[in-house]
Structures are given as structure tokens and as C-alpha cells.
Design goal:
Shape: globular
Number of strands: 2
CATH topology: Tetracycline Repressor, domain 2
Number of domains: 1
Distance between the termini: 50 Å
Number of helices: 11
CATH class: Mainly Alpha
CATH architecture: Orthogonal Bundle
Strand order of the largest sheet: 1-2
Order of helices and strands: EHEHHHHHHHHHH
Radius of gyration: 19 Å
């Protein structure tokens, strides 16, 4: 079974159940013209709000039926489900989408769906979390001798050399879900669950950077502040994109905006180079 994970994203030619634009346009040679969230998380040079349908390699039925599913297979399945749930949420609204519809679209039983997710809205978490994880991975790679701004600039240059169109499509789906979370309380709960995980990851990064224990109150305060700015920046990007307030974003400016926000929110404690351990 193959499934289309994205049926067009944000085009002025059509509207979805929420009154937002949503028709497809071919990506073609414009693979580098991607979403602002892609620019933010994957550091691409620019974006346009268009995408072509992407066929997702599904989890084989034999894997889904096996008694002992590996963690890798499980994660792949959860992402497949999340993409399909997000598509349904976007096309017909969260309220109108049922767990039965999500399970049916994936060729699963409802019982199997609830084995992996606590409710239908939580089905959106894996696709959102995947994109936030890209940022956290970038922070975990932050070398001691670089400032946050310089590190982002270096990562930016590397990502531009190796664009990932498939990941950019997932970024667009994530933007849609974060945007819907503004008006869908249950979906916002799922988004905030992801943000809570970001805070925990931030504590590890910051604690290592400052050579302090994770139990240090100052580390926890800095982590909470940094995670909050990540949430706000993501929400702002989603709102601006979905409102079609612009059609191109300077990814370098976005990355510097985030670095400045992290530095400011932590009172300057996080952002500078530190001594090599």
C-alpha cells in the first residue's frame, strides 16, 4: 500500500476545511524553495508555500503483523500514521476526523491505533516531534568553541549543500499542525507535549554547556526559557505562513533570530563559546 502524505500545502488557488489555502503545485526544480520551518530547522536558503504530493513508503503489512515489532519499525509506523492523521485533520478538521478514519486510511484496526496513541489528536505528535528533533540534534552538535550564532551559520551552510525535499514536506505538515493548534485545544495539548520534551532536551544541552547538573535550578530555568522561545518562534512562523503574509524567508535571518532569542531568554548565559572540556 502506498499513500500520499501531503495533498498540496498552502496555495492561493484552493481552501481547506479551515478556510486556509491548500492546493498543490509541482516542486520540480524549486527543491530549495521550501517552508520557513524548513529554513528554520533544516537551514535551507528560501522557501515558497508549495509542494507536490510525496509518496510515503509504507510500513509493510508483514512488519505491522509481526508479534515483536522493532523500535525502528515502530517509529516508522508511527510516522506513517501521523502523516495520514495530519492530512485528515487538515483536509476535514480535527473534530470531523475519527480514529476509525485514521486507522482505515492506514489499513489498521482501531485497536492497533489505540495501542500506539492515547487519542486521535496525539497522532499528530510524531510528525511535529520529528521536525523539532532536527533542531535539538543541531544543538547537541554545538561545539564548545563556537557561539550559537556561528554554529547555526555553519549548519546553515551544510544544509544548503545537502537539501532534503522529503524532510521539507514533513516540515510543511508540521507547520499545518502547529497552526491548527491555535484553534484546536486538544491538538494544542499534543503540541505542548512535544514542547515539554524539548525543555527536557534543552536541559541536557545547557547542562553540558555550562558543566552543571541537570538538577541545578539555574539549568532548569534556562532550559525552560530556551524551550519557550523555540515554541514561540515555531508558532509565529506557522501563523505567518498560514496567513500568507510573505512568500519568501531568509533562512539565515531566521536562524539568527532564534539564536538571539535563546541568548536573550537565558540572560546571556547560553550562546557564547565555552572552554573545551
Amino acid at each position: 500500500m502506498s499513500q500520499t502524505v501531503l495533498h498540496g500545502v498552502i496555495s492561493p488557488t484552493a481552501r481547506n476545511a479551515h478556510g486556509r489555502a491548500g492546493a498543490a503545485a509541482p516542486l520540480g526544480d524549486r527543491a530549495r524553495e521550501l517552508s520557513p520551518f524548513d529554513a528554520f530547522c533544516h537551514l535551507m536558503p528560501k522557501w515558497r508555500v508549495t509542494s507536490e504530493p510525496v509518496m510515503t513508503p509504507p510500513t509493510p503489512v508483514s512488519e505491522r503483523r509481526s508479534g515483536a515489532m522493532s523500535e525502528r519499525r515502530r517509529r516508522r509506523l508511527l510516522l506513517d500514521i501521523s502523516r495520514e492523521a495530519a492530512r485528515l485533520f487538515w483536509e476535514q478538521g480535527v473534530t470531523a476526523t475519527t480514529g476509525e478514519q485514521i486507522a482505515d486510511a492506514m489499513g489498521l484496526s482501531v485497536r492497533t491505533l489505540w495501542r500506539h496513541f492515547r487519542n486521535k489528536e496525539s497522532c499528530a505528535e510524531p510528525i511535529i516531534e520529528q521536525n523539532v528533533e532536527a533542531l535539538m540534534a543541531m544543538l547537541r552538535r554545538w561545539p564548545a568553541h563556537l557561539s550559537l550564532e556561528d554554529h547555526f551559520a555553519a549548519e546553515f551552510a551544510e544544509r544548503v549543500r545537502e537539501p532534503d525535499v522529503r524532510r521539507s514536506t514533513d516540515d510543511l505538515i508540521s507547520i499545518q499542525m502547529v497552526g491548527l493548534a491555535d484553534t484546536e485545544p486538544a491538538l494544542r495539548s499534543s503540541w505542548l507535549m512535544v514542547c515539554d520534551r524539548v525543555e527536557r532536551e534543552m536541559a541536557v544541552v545547557i547542562g553540558s554547556r555550562l558543566r552543571a547538573s541537570l538538577d541545578d535550578p539555574q539549568v532548569r530555568l534556562h532550559a525552560a526559557a530556551a524551550a519557550a522561545v523555540v515554541r514561540v518562534v515555531n508558532e509565529d512562523i506557522s501563523r505567518e505562513l498560514l496567513a500568507e503574509r510573505y512568500d519568501r524567508v531568509d533562512a539565515r535571518r531566521l536562524s539568527q533570530r532564534l539564536a538571539h532569542a535563546v541568548r536573550t531568554s537565558t540572560g546571556g548565559a547560553v550562546g557564547d563559546p565555552v572552554a573545551e572540556s
